[in-house]
Design a protein that fits this description.
The complex is a heterodimer of chains A (896) and B (371). Chain A is mainly alpha-helical. Chain A is built from 20 helices and 7 strands. The radius of gyration of chain A is 82 Å and the shape is flat. In chain A, 25% of the residues are buried. Chain B has helices at 14-30, 59-77, 93-105, 122-130, 154-169, 185-198, 216-226, 243-252, 266-279, 292-304, 325-330, 344-356; strands spanning 49-53, 86-88, 110-114, 134-138, 148-151, 173-179, 204-211, 235-237, 259-260, 285-287, 312-314, 318-320, 337-338, 368-369. The chains are: A mainly alpha (896), B alpha/beta (371).
Chain lengths: 896, 371
């Protein structure tokens, strides 16, 4: 053996001395270390994959953001909605922040992406700036345009005011011309009048006699109102003086003409001259006035001409201003067209209109232009301002267009970049996942192998000595107590166990020795016991045989007795019936004979004797019959609604005759709250009461007899009644009280006994018992007797008028069982089979009856009901009920 | 514009009107034996008559339209017609032609026309006749043979005035004529009647003519302007509505009132009454009335009811003589005018008188129109 080999063996042996716990702990520690190593490898792969997935996810997010920004930018381009642009910038800012977080993960990858996004952001900013410029210029254009419109409006208003003014002046001039025309006509009329007057006066002055001076005066008079028409028509210097002068001249002429007409011929010439002179003055003045009117007319004509010229100029100005206003309006429309479709053609149209406006502005009426007096704007300023603003707007528009393109380009570039980035990262993630899967698989497999080796080795170290020990123990258990045990010297738990097995082996060897002694002792005692048991058993067997013999004998005796009783009852019943028929014939004929009038006294006495004897015999037979029925348990009660009071009175009425014959008072005493009707068998009740009251009458010679009923309060359709028959008769000794209810027992002297059967009280007691009560008696010799019984009777509510009992009123189920149950119509087997059953019933062999019934039921389904009933009774060991059932059937034909 | 004329034939005093009125109902009943005389009772309940009025700007025309509406309402309630609306044009022939065309299209059974022009409406009136519409031309002219004309005899009015003046002046004297509106057909008719009648009296000279526009103020002014050169005026023949203005002009010129033929206005009748009471002034009144629209209405209704009606129905002018003056003025308010109410019976009698060439009937008691 080599040195190293020795060392190894000693090391193994040293290891064997380690405790099992230490060995298992070492194994578990090795497995845990292995698991940790595998997990670390897995974690590394997972972390790599997670990073790749994270980058890919963020890339997608950036892609979505860029698309969203682009959508908003496009929306802004189509609608100029500033909010959407602001929102786009916000999203872009957030995306850049996202990327900055991203940089910590993949710093190299994000640099180009961030640069791209910044360019995108710059393009949007340019877009915004350009839009601002356009809006500013639009506002400028609007301002300039508004001012131009104000100018146009102001000029139009000015022209309109001037037009109104001209119209007024023209109207005034027209009125003036009309007045002048009127003035001409008036002056013409005056001149005509003056001429007429001058002509007449001239003719008068040359001596013409036909000249009518009065007409000349009339002409002058007529001038005055016409002159008045001139008032207010013409207003010019010297007019009024001329008017006054004319008026005076006409008046003076008129007066001169009057004087001339009235004057003497001497002064005619002078007066005529004066009148002529005045008229000529007036004529001259009229002429002057006409000249003045003509001058006025010329002035008015000139004024009209001037007005016409001015109106023409005004119209011209109005035309120019109207065309200016039209072009101002057109400018707005064309600008709008350009804004909607910024083509060179549309821009050319706007410029063309601006050029036209510039030309119009040079020939516009020199009206003040601005409503804002603080800053005076000329039309040219506005047109130039509009043109400049439009040019800037146009440039901004171009810039905007370029910015649009720039934004779109940057967006596309960024999208491409992000997409490429995302694709790369997805590839990295996929690769990491595949590598991680392989590494995990390999490490897991090697871990499993190592674990298996550790487990095998450990189990080998621990399990082998235990298995050997188990084999030793099995041998010991099989009884090989001499088995050799090895490994007692081991230091671990197995060594302990081996030593324990050794102790067990020694103990077992001791127990085996003790058991051998005990077995010998037990065998001795058992032999003694067996001898004593055999002895006792012999004695018991002997006694049992004796008892069995006695039981058979007793059973036979019982069967004989019962058969005899049944035969007696049947005989009695048959005999009673057979006796009663002839007896009824005897009684009937005796009665007929008694009614015959020609019978002699002796014959009548004989007949009476026959009647009395017959009656007695009949009573005896009836009682016997009742008794036999009761004993045979064949007596049935027929309860029906009975007016209790009336029923009792009937009893009293009948007995009253006999009582009166004896000079005894018979009283009925009823309670106040007696039910109208109760359900009971009236016939049987009468039988009992007749018996009791009859006995009372029979044994009472003086005093009184009382039938008394006491009623307890009604409860649930029932009433508890106490019947008492009390007399003041001879009474009975206490020892007699025990026998009076026995059949054929009579008390009292012979005289009184005559006429009694000795069965009455026995029958009565049985009847009352069947009704659910019992008769009691108390008596004192020489004082009287008192019979009483109590019954619980259902209350019937019957219609007495109709006399028909209303059976439905009381539920029969509630009536106490009084033997009224009707046997169902069972189908019975032939009589010899019934005899067989009867025999079994008499023997009381319930098991045999059960078997018999089962056979019967199997034989014919018609017997099934009967069989079921018998099985039911037999299984509950109601031997008496079985017997009654069979005997009822066997006596089925019995009827009295 | 106002239409004012009178005629000499058939102008009756109030008493004469009253006498004739008594016999009127007898005539209406008694002459009803033939379908041609008396009131035609044909069923016109569902007929519709329209009034196309050329102008409604003057008081005269306003009253005329009002009179039409009164009679239309009355006739509607009495079950003579279904409806009779009025449509007025603004003195424009094209507008009126359009109105008439509409009425034809709307299916009116008869159209009463006060024409704005006697020539411009010819074609539209012919179309209406062709469409079976009864066309009645009222107080105007449309030179179309199918129309019925209801009018005053204007020439007769001028004759009546000249006859009266000649009688008063014994056939000699200077006359001043006041005409209406230059160029108006009615003015020309009346003036022609005056001049024609004056030719029968060589002693009567119409020394001057002025246009008073049927208006008192214009007449006063024109007469005043003429007066200084006029010789003595014995009578003024006019066309109604201008007598008052002429009288004022004479008074202001200090001249005595000549015989001025009066119209139907209250102011001229009252002046006549005062002058009569003060100086025994005498004259007479003749005039057309705005209620002539009622005559037009009933003529149209009677044609629809089946009455035989001549193409021209002459409406008697209302004349007031000295003896009736107080009666007329008694019920006439200041600013009012004489304006009789024309019933269906009277118009039927007028038609019959026209057919038989007898004297026209009278109107009932003198009603008054507020101005």
């Amino acid at each position: 053996m080599t040195q190293p080999g020795k060392r190894q063996r000693s090391a193994v042996r040293a290891f064997e001395h380690w405790s099992i716990t230490a060995k298992i702990t070492l194994s578990v520690a090795l497995l845990v270390a292995l698991a940790v190593a595998v997990s670390l490898v897995g974690l590394y792969g997972l972390e790599r994959m997670q990073r790749a997935v994270d980058i890919a996810g963020r890339s997608s997010q950036v892609l979505v953001s860029v698309n969203s920004v682009m959508e908003r930018v496009e929306y802004f381009i189509s609608t100029r909605d500033r909010d959407s642009l602001l929102k786009a910038e916000t999203i872009l800012g957030e995306t850049l922040e996202t990327l900055s977080g991203f940089a910590t993960i993949a710093p190299r990858d994000t640099v180009s992406l961030t640069a791209g996004l910044r360019r995108f952001s710059d393009a949007i900013a340019t877009l915004q700036v350009t839009t601002d410029i356009m809006e500013t210029e639009t506002a400028n254009m609007t301002t300039h345009h508004g001012r131009m419109r104000q100018v146009a409006t102001a000029i139009e208003q000015d022209i309109e005011q001037r037009r109104v003014l001209f119209h007024r002046r023209a109207a005034l001039n027209s009125a003036r011309l009309s007045d002048i025309r009127d003035a001409h006509r008036i002056l013409e009329s005056i001149r005509d009048g003056e001429r007429a007057a001058i002509a007449i006066l001239a003719r008068y002055m040359v001596g013409d006699e036909r000249a009518d001076l009065a007409r000349a005066g009339d002409a002058c008079k007529a001038i005055r109102p016409v002159l008045g028409m001139l008032d207010g028509l013409i207003a010019m210097p010297g007019w009024q003086q001329q008017m006054d002068s004319l008026g005076r001249a006409v008046n003076e002429a008129e007066r001169a003409i009057d004087d001339l007409a009235k004057g003497a011929p001497a002064v005619r010439a002078a007066l005529g001259d004066r009148a002529l002179q005045r008229l000529e003055l007036a004529h001259e003045t009229t002429h002057q006035l006409d000249h003045m009117v003509k001058a006025e007319e010329e002035r008015a004509a000139l004024a009209s001409e001037a007005l016409g010229t001015e109106t023409g100029l005004l119209q011209n100005a109005a035309n120019i201003s109207k065309r200016f206003a039209e072009r101002v309006a057109n400018l707005e429309a064309q600008t709008l067209t350009f804004r909607l479709s910024p083509t060179d053609e549309a821009a050319g149209a706007v410029k063309d209109i601006l050029y036209q406006l510039t030309r119009f502005s040079r020939i516009l009426p020199s009206a003040v232009v601005s409503q804002d007096s603080a800053s005076l704007h000329t039309v040219s300023d506005q047109i130039d301002g509009y043109g400049a603003a439009f040019e800037r707007f146009r440039q901004a528009g171009r810039a905007l267009h370029e910015a649009h393109d720039q934004v779109r380009r940057e967006a596309a570039r960024t999208v491409a970049l992000v997409a490429q980035f995302a694709t790369d990262q997805r590839a990295v993630a996929a690769e990491s996942r595949a590598r991680g899967t392989w590494i995990s698989l390999l490490t897991s497999l090697s871990a499993v192998l190592i674990a298996l080796i550790i487990a095998w080795h450990t189990s080998r170290l621990i399990a082998r000595p235990i298995v050997a020990l188990a084999a030793v123990m099995r041998r010991l258990a099989e009884g090989h107590l001499e088995e050799k045990i090895v490994g007692l010297q081991r230091g671990d738990e197995i060594g302990g166990m081996t030593r324990a097995v050794r102790v067990f082996q020694e103990n077992a060897q001791r127990v085996r020795a003790l058991e051998a002694e005990a077995e010998a002792e037990r065998k001795r005692i058992l032999a003694q016991l067996e001898a004593r048991v055999a002895e006792r058993t012999e004695a018991l067997l002997h006694k049992t045989d004796e008892l069995e013999l006695q039981a058979v004998e007793l059973d036979q005796a019982r069967i004989q007795a019962e058969t005899a009783t049944r035969a007696k009852s049947a005989f009695l019943a048959n005999m009673s019936h057979e006796l009663r028929t002839p007896l009824n014939a005897i009684l009937g004929y005796s009665q007929l004979l008694l009614r015959e009038s020609d019978t002699g006294e002796k014959q009548q006495r004989g007949l009476n004797t026959i009647m009395k004897s017959g009656q007695h015999l009949l009573t005896l037979i009836n009682d016997l019959l009742d008794l036999s029925k009761i004993e045979a348990e064949k007596l049935e009660l027929y309860p029906e609604p009975v007016d209790l009071a009336a029923s009792l009175r009937t009893v009293i009425d009948i007995m009253q005759i006999r009582a009166e014959q004896k000079g005894v008072a018979l009283r009925l005493q009823l309670p106040e709250q007696l039910p109208e009707a109760v359900l009971m068998d009236e016939k049987r009740m009468h039988q009992v009461l007749f018996n009791l009251v009859g006995n009372a009458v029979k044994f009472t010679d003086s005093g009184q007899i009382r039938l008394c009923v006491e009623a307890a309060p009604e409860t649930e359709g029932e009433v508890r009644l106490r019947f008492v028959v009390e007399d003041t008769g001879i009474g009975m000794a206490p020892e007699q009280l025990d026998t009076i209810f026995q059949p054929f027992e009579q008390v009292g002297d012979n005289k009184r006994r005559a006429g009694g059967t000795g069965l009455g009280l026995a029958v009565s007691r049985q009847l009352i018992r069947r009704m659910g009560g019992d008769i009691g008696v108390s008596s004192t010799p020489g004082v009287g007797s008192r019979f009483h019984f109590e019954l619980t009777l259902p209350i019937a509510r019957c219609g007495r008028e109709s006399g028909e009992p209303e059976q439905d009123i009381v539920d029969h189920a509630d009536v106490p069982k009084q033997g009224t149950t009707a046997a169902p119509e069972w189908v019975w087997p032939p009589p010899q089979r019934v005899e067989e059953l009867h025999r079994l019933a008499l023997m009381g062999d319930m098991r045999a009856i059960g078997r018999w019934a089962e056979e019967l039921g199997a034989e014919d389904p018609r017997y099934r009901q009967l069989a079921d009933r018998l099985i039911e009774l037999a299984s509950s060991f109601q031997s008496r009920a079985v017997l009654r059932l069979i005997e009822q059937h066997m006596e089925g034909g019995l009827s009295i | 514009m106002a239409v004012q004329t009178r005629r000499s034939a058939g102008f009756l005093s109030i008493r004469q009107w009253a006498v004739l009125a008594a016999g009127l109902s007898m005539m209406a009943n008694g002459l009803a034996q033939g379908a041609d005389s008396g009131v035609a009772e044909g069923d016109t309940r569902h007929k519709r008559i329209a009034f196309s009025n050329s102008y409604a700007g003057s008081d005269f025309r306003k009253v005329m339209v009002q009179n039409w509406e009164e009679v239309a309402q009355h006739a509607q309630q009495a079950g003579f017609i279904r409806e009779a609306p009025v449509v007025s044009a603004d003195n424009s022939a094209p507008e009126q032609a359009a109105h008439i065309q509409n009425m034809v299209l709307e299916g009116y059974d008869a159209i009463v026309i006060l024409a704005a022009s006697d020539t411009a409406l010819k074609s539209v009136v012919r179309d209406a006749c062709s469409a079976g519409v009864v066309v009645v031309v009222l107080a105007s002219k449309v030179s179309e043979p199918c129309v019925y004309e209801v009018n005053y005899d204007w020439a007769q009015m001028g004759r009546a005035e000249i006859d009266y003046v000649a009688e008063r002046l014994g056939g000699e004297g200077n006359l001043l004529e006041i005409r209406g509106i230059a160029g108006d057909a009615t003015d020309a008719d009346i003036s022609a009647g005056i001049h024609k009648a004056a030719a029968d009296y060589p002693g009567l000279k119409i020394v001057h003519t002025v246009y008073g526009n049927w208006t008192a103020s214009v007449a006063q002014r024109e007469v005043a302007l003429a007066l200084p050169s006029l010789p003595k005026i014995d009578a003024i023949v006019d066309q109604g509505g201008d007598g008052y203005g002429a009288a004022l002009a004479f008074r202001e010129a200090g001249r005595p009132l000549p015989i001025i033929i009066m119209g139907n206005r209250q102011n001229e009748l009252a002046l006549w009454q005062r002058e009569r009471d003060a100086k025994g002034y005498r004259t007479f009144s003749i005039s057309a009335t705005p209620s002539v629209s009622q005559v037009g209405f009933w003529v149209a209704q009677q044609i629809l009811a089946g009455k035989q009606v001549p193409r021209v129905v002459t409406v008697p002018l209302v004349s007031i003589h000295e003896e009736d003056l107080d009666d007329w003025l008694a019920t006439m308010p200041e600013g009012g005018a004489a304006n009789p109410f024309y019933s269906r019976d009277i118009v039927a009698a007028m038609i019959d008188a026209e057919r038989m060439g007898t004297e026209p009937p009278q109107v009932p008691a003198p009603p008054v129109v507020e101005r």
